[in-house]
């Protein structure tokens, strides 16, 4: 680019929008679609003259226009494994299998659809000795838990003064303040599920978390809420939507969406989105070896409340694992935003857990979204899988203008945003598959960074605004899309719009 001017060239591809690809990693084979393939449109050619129209292109009305949502960054890798529903005691559990039916993941509807099983697919439900998840009670699974800096502890939570004043209550989880927990509360009551579906390829649930401490809003150190029928089921003004999908034989994507249903701002503090509670030997293997991404053991030895021990640590690879003594079987967690600060908690013979340390708030009527990945196997296997994820997660984002089915004039301004774990190098606007213009990210979007916390890209602009002429397009429906490229060489259509030109009008 010279003088702010650019022209474009296009590398021809097969007819249509689908380009097949396959990526092999050791014994792991992954097929993918055009959405996660390497770029087929080349980078802008530095010619010194900006010409947003493609020279020599004859525009025609497309035979059909598919403006469906491209989905998440690994959409093309989702395995359409079968699902099943089983009864375990008084609970109903939903299971999702990988495509080869060698591994499954399970959630418990009675406990807010929290993850209670991840392991090999053989064995009786609830009794499989390969299950790497604790799943012992409403507080110990793979689940989310939220906090508010101003309402961290009972008594001061009532006046939203916890940031500035302490509480006379004991330093115990019994006296936590505002604290919606996916699994349920300290009374052993599970959080209610609004809806739960188990479809080939995905487990979905909408949950209304209960407050862990039913007395959280009390002005004294009372501890009798579990005996009160109303307080024992005290819910929070929060709705949580969860989706689980296999993106490899031993890797599950967790898509998490939290909505604040109240006009109350919850101040930023460290959150659990999610925490991974691993088995401790009673119902599965004892995964008490907590390892960082280098394979080094983390000594969880700092005394904390309730007889627990804790340790904060750095994991440069963006993930942590909990393994058995031989380090040949366990579970790992990787956060898409590439988190490197972690915290582990342990109590011998009771539980082992780990989570990323990241701070964010929940604005009034606002929302927060994130993705994490659960990985099954040895330390070496998990390191290999994370390495693949880390370099192959493609960008994602939105088109905000034009609106769907908008009638365009002589030009259109395409705006939106894009995020990636390692950085977006540029976005390309296409019409009916032809690149018409491109741009770097130039617009700061703190609103999006509040909705998607934890991405390092948010220190820089993540929004785009590109104006392109469309007067030469024939009068009909067209497909407008934006394709984003990242620093790892991945390219993906992040969003699509059907638009109308000429005298066709809005349909």
- Order the strands across the largest sheet as they lie in space: 9-10-12-13-24-20-19-16
Overall tally of domains: 2
What level of helicity do the residues show? under 10%
Cα-atom radius of gyration: 25 Å
Give a count of the beta strands, DSSP E runs of length 2 or more: 31
The shape, in one word, is globular
Which fold name is given in CATH as the topology of the largest domain? Beta-galactosidase, Chain A, domain 5
Question: What structural class is derived from the secondary structure elements?
Answer: mainly beta
Q: Uncertain runs with pLDDT below 50, 5 residues or more?
A: 1-53
Instruction: Report the sheet with the most strands, covering strand number, pairing sense and barrel closure.
Output: 8 strands, antiparallel
Question: Which architecture of the largest domain would the CATH scheme give at its second level?
Answer: Distorted Sandwich
The average pLDDT is: 88
Gap between N and C termini: 38 Å
Compact summary:
The protein has helices spanning 379-392, 446-451, and strands spanning 21-25, 28-32, 83-88, 91-97, 103-108, 114-120, 142-145, 180-181, 193-199, 202-207, 210-211, 238-248, 251-260, 266-270, 272-278, 289-291, 302-303, 309-314, 319-323, 330-335, 341-347, 351-356, 359-362, 367-376, 396-401, 411-419, 424-431, 434-439, 463-469, 477-486, 491-500.
């Amino acid at each position: 680019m010279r003088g702010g001017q650019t022209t474009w060239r296009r590398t021809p591809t097969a007819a249509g929008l689908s380009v097949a690809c396959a990526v092999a990693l050791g014994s792991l084979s992954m097929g993918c679609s055009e959405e996660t393939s390497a770029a087929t449109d080349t980078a802008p050619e530095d010619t010194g003259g900006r010409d947003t129209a493609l020279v020599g292109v004859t525009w025609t009305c497309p035979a059909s226009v598919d403006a469906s949502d491209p989905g998440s960054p690994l959409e093309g890798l989702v395995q359409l494994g079968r699902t099943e529903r089983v009864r375990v005691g008084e609970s109903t559990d939903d299971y999702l299998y990988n495509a080869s039916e060698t591994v499954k993941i399970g959630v418990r509807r009675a406990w807010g659809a929290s993850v209670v099983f991840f392991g090999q697919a053989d064995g009786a439900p609830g009794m499989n000795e390969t299950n790497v998840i604790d799943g012992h009670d409403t507080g110990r699974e793979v689940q989310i838990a939220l906090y508010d800096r101003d309402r961290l502890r009972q008594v001061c939570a009532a006046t939203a003064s916890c940031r500035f004043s302490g509480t006379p209550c004991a330093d115990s989880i019994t006296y936590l303040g505002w604290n919606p927990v996916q699994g349920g509360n300290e009374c052993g009551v599970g959080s209610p599920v609004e809806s739960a579906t188990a479809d080939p390829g995905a487990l979905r649930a909408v949950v209304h978390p209960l407050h862990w401490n039913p007395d959280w809003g009390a002005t004294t150190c009372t501890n009798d809420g579990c005996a009160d029928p109303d307080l024992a089921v005290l819910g929070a003004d929060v709705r949580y939507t969860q989706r689980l999908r296999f993106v490899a034989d031993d890797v599950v994507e967790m898509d998490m969406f939290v909505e604040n249903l109240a006009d109350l701002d919850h101040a930023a503090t460290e959150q659990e989105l999610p925490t991974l509670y691993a088995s401790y030997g009673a119902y599965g293997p004892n995964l008490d070896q907590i390892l960082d991404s280098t394979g080094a053991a983390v000594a969880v030895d700092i005394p904390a409340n309730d007889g627990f021990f804790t340790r904060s640590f750095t994991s440069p690879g963006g993930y942590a694992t909990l393994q058995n003594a031989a380090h040949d079987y366990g579970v790992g967690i990787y956060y898409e935003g590439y988190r490197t600060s972690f915290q582990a908690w342990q109590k011998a013979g009771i539980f082992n857990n780990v989570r990323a340390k990241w701070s964010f708030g929940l604005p009034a009527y606002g929302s927060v979204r994130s993705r994490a990945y659960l990985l099954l196997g040895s330390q070496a296997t998990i390191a290999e899988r994370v390495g693949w994820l880390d370099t192959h997660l493609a960008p994602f984002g939105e088109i905000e203008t034009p609106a769907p089915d908008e009638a365009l004039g002589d030009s259109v301004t395409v705006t939106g945003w894009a995020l990636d774990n390692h950085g977006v190098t540029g976005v390309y606007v296409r019409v009916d598959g032809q690149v018409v213009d491109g741009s770097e990210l130039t617009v700061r979007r703190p609103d999006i960074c509040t909705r998607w916390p934890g991405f390092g890209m948010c220190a820089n602009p993540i929004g785009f605004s590109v104006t392109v002429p469309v007067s030469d397009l024939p009068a009909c429906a067209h497909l407008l899309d934006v394709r984003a490229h990242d620093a790892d060489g991945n390219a993906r259509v992040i969003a699509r719009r059907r638009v109308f030109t000429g005298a066709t009008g809005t349909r």
